[in-house]
Specification:
The chain has 497 residues and is mostly beta strands. Helices cover 3% and strands 41% of the residues. The strands form 5 sheets. It has a 15-stranded mixed sheet that branches. Strands 2, 6, 7, 8, 9, 10, 15, 20, 23 and 24 form a 10-stranded antiparallel sheet that branches. It has a 4-stranded antiparallel sheet with strand order 26-27-30-29, with no helix packed on it. Strand 12 and strand 13 form a beta hairpin.
């Protein structure tokens, strides 16, 4: 279920209560690592939800925060922070600390922090349980505090760049099903936020992750701007041997676009937070995989080479491409991962789950670690996560649309595919006679592949037919060549009836 964020705030107390840093003169990431390692040696004890506020969807959304009581409002910091209570779907409480010059104090909520029109009375308590927080800064205007970052629910977090809107989310860790177990969803249970100084451009956040099988220490350095960047450093400890650990996970929604509109009865032209998975390889090749809303759960694994970057992208940036003037899909960011120096061997994997509507996050991408995580040896990694409404410049022709349908004439025992490619900057002229198409399929037969100019985009259109594919789920692959040199992304698509 897609997470719905309704913002609340709390005032904070100034008593040093942190179990990690009490009596310590300086808080560091090492403190969080030590706590994660200690917890990994003990049996898992899930957080109690006995004090969670029992709120319906409408009750939850009608509890608002009081901006005047934002955390850091007592400083000249360029950031402000507000808190969410538990309630509705968010039933796991967190503990939140503020760190000032190494001194740690717990941030607590109380009734007077909330503007409550829900009709349900909040308890007269200074310890209303919290489920997450959001952060704002002067992102778009020096006069307005714009929200740009949210941590709430399990290990989910998301961010926006300048002029962007919330869309896809990131997660701390993926623990896939194994040995007959279901998938685990680890929780960020404790956070430490360093009080930013007046001229700071970044916000420093530390988090403790816990689940039945693992614990983890995370450090986030968040820099909002034209692109909002989050530098992530983590150390994960296994309570038991782990296989199938996914790091740098992204979670998004793809319902439909021009590639599968024939299967969706909807007035809109498209509905998605992301429309493709991409991986930029060190060899110079770029893989573009059009996302799908499949009939059955589908799992794909792409490159085993650690790429320069990979992630989930939103390429349609025109509201006309959606015909939905309420959702602002065109302003929702892409997000990609730039692996750091400490990044394990593995593969870029993609999970696509069927969804009957656009309320579910049904797309997950992550880097699957090749080696098992042993109890004796933690998994360490670092990467940069970028949220942006603009892609990095490329010399390759990019995929801008993927379409398919039955032919409008003759026998209907084959399927027609149409893929449009375009350059970042409109070229003066593309000589069709100089370029060729390289198209292949894992099953069936490719026929009548041809390239034509696209007078609207200034790019080229690739058309081809897929024959003899009935009963299979062919993996399609296409690229544009000029004198045997690849000049486009590698387009990938899994077709299924």
């Amino acid at each position: 279920m897609k997470k719905k964020f309704y913002v609340l705030t709390a005032i904070f107390t100034v008593t040093i209560t942190s179990p990690i840093c009490a009596g310590k003169a300086q808080f560091t990431f090492t403190n969080v690592v030590e706590q994660a390692q200690l917890l990994a040696s003990r049996p898992y004890t899930p957080a109690s939800d006995g004090n969670v506020l029992k709120l319906t969807y409408d009750e939850y959304r009608n509890i608002r925060f009081d901006n005047s009581k934002s955390v850091f409002a007592d400083t000249d910091s360029p950031f402000r922070m507000q808190l969410f209570p538990t309630g509705y779907y968010f039933t796991r409480p967190i503990t939140l600390y503020r760190v000032d010059n190494g001194n740690v104090s717990e941030i607590k909520a109380q009734k007077s922090s909330f503007i409550n029109t829900s009709g349900k009375e909040l308890p007269d308590s200074v310890s209303i349980p919290l489920s997450g927080f959001r952060v704002s800064t002067h992102l778009n205007s020096s006069k307005i505090w714009d929200e740009f970052l949210v941590f709430q629910g399990a290990s989910y977090f998301r961010a926006v760049p300048k002029s962007g809107a919330y869309g896809l989310s990131a997660r701390g860790l993926v623990i896939q099903p194994h040995d007959g177990k279901t998938e685990e969803f680890p929780d960020f249970t404790t956070f430490w936020i360093l009080t930013p100084k007046k001229n700071d451009k970044t916000l420093e956040i530390y988090a403790l992750l816990e689940s039945e099988s693992a614990t983890g220490a995370y450090k986030f350095i968040v820099t909002p701007g034209e692109e909002t960047k989050i530098d992530v450093c983590a150390k994960v400890f296994a309570r038991e041997e782990l296989n199938g650990v996914g790091i740098a996970p992204l979670t998004s929604m793809f319902y439909f676009n021009e590639s599968n509109h024939f299967a969706i009865d909807d007035f809109r032209a498209a509905s998605h937070d992301s429309d493709g998975f991409a991986a930029n390889l060190k060899s110079g090749e770029c893989i573009w995989r059009q996302l799908r809303n499949p009939r059955n759960v589908e799992y794909s694994s792409f490159t085993n080479e650690i790429p320069q970057s990979f992630g989930l992208y939103q390429r349609e940036r025109n509201s006309i491409g959606y015909q939905d003037f309420e959702t602002n899909y065109e302003a929702r960011p892409s997000a990609w991962i730039i692996p750091g120096k400490n990044f394990p061997k593995g593969s870029a994997d993609l999970l696509e789950i069927p969804t009957p509507d656009d309320t579910n996050d049904n797309i997950v991408s992550f880097w699957k670690a090749q080696e098992k995580v042993q109890k004796e040896k933690p998994l360490e990694f670092d990467y940069t996560l970028v949220f942006s409404t603009h892609e990095t410049k490329s010399n390759l022709l990019r995929t801008i649309s993927s379409r398919s349908g039955l032919p409008t004439y003759g026998k209907k025992n084959y399927r027609l595919f149409v893929v449009d490619f375009a350059a970042d900057e409109k070229p003066k002229q593309i000589q069709i006679e100089d370029i060729t198409a390289d198209v292949s399929s894992s099953s069936g037969t490719i026929k009548n592949a041809r390239i034509e100019k696209n007078p609207v985009t200034g790019g080229v259109r690739l058309c081809f037919e897929l024959h003899d594919y009935i009963g299979t789920n062919p993996e399609l692959r296409a690229r544009i060549l000029k004198k045997n040199k690849q000049i486009s992304e590698t387009w990938l698509y899994r077709w299924g009836e």
